[in-house]
Amino acid sequence: DTACSSSLVSANNIHSYFRTRSQKQKQYGFSMGHQLNMLPWAYIGLSGAGMIGRIGRSMTFNITANGFGRGEGVGGITLKASDDTQSTQDRLGVYVASYINQDGRSASLTAPNGPSQQLCIRGALKQGRLDVQDVVAQENHGTGTALGDPIETGSVEAVFRRRAG
């Protein structure tokens, strides 16, 4: 159980397999995630923990953020192993690196750990042989919570701070 990161962990597992496979092994992987709100218990628990926003929507990285708005969705990606010699005609994007870690000790079970997040971002950059200057977009967890957003923002800033200088 990886809570909010199960789809990411699934895609990372496929990417890890591609990095260690021989050329004769399978060349495709499929990762899928879903969120279906079928029972009220999750709402009750998350509301009790103060994680559901009072206005019913996420205001991520906004001063008015007070939680997240729960939604439903299903998404999936197909990953294809390739090397530089293969045709790029069917490429929609390139999955250069993936990196996962565990927060370790935090203030609570749901509290993010900033130093651990920084290590994860730096690990992905290193694995992809990328510098912070190479990154043009950053996607975040963005829970819209008073605890999570500042920690996540601080982690991203600490890693990418060099870009502004």
Summarize the structure.
By secondary structure, the protein is of the alpha+beta class.
Report on this model:
InterPro entries: Ketoacyl_synth_C, Ketoacyl_synth_N, PKS_Beta-ketoAc_synthase_dom, PKS_NRPS_Biosynth_Enz, Thiolase-like. It comes from Alexandrium monilatum. It holds the Pfam family ketoacyl-synt. By secondary structure, this protein is of the alpha+beta class. Helix content is 33%, strand content 10%. Strands 1-2 form a two-stranded antiparallel ribbon. α3 packs across α4. The longest helix has 17 residues.
User: What's the end-to-end separation, in Å?
Assistant: 39 Å
How many DSSP H or I helices? 4
SSE string: HEHEHH
Structural class determined from secondary elements? alpha+beta
Strand order of the largest sheet: 1-2
Query: Biggest β-sheet, characterized?
Result: 2 strands, antiparallel
The value of Rg in angstroms is 18 Å
Beta fraction: 5-15%
Question: Residue-averaged pLDDT, rounded?
Answer: 84
Number of strands: 2
Please give the share of residues in helix: 25-40%
Anisotropy-based shape: globular
Features:
33% helix; PKS_Beta-ketoAc_synthase_dom; Ketosynthase family 3 (KS3) domain-containing protein; alpha+beta; single chain; two-stranded antiparallel sheet; phosphoprotein; 165 residues
Map the helices and strands.
Elements: H1 6-20, E1 28-35, H2 41-48, E2 73-80, H3 114-127, H4 148-164
Antiparallel strand pairs: 1-2
Helix pairs in contact: 3-4
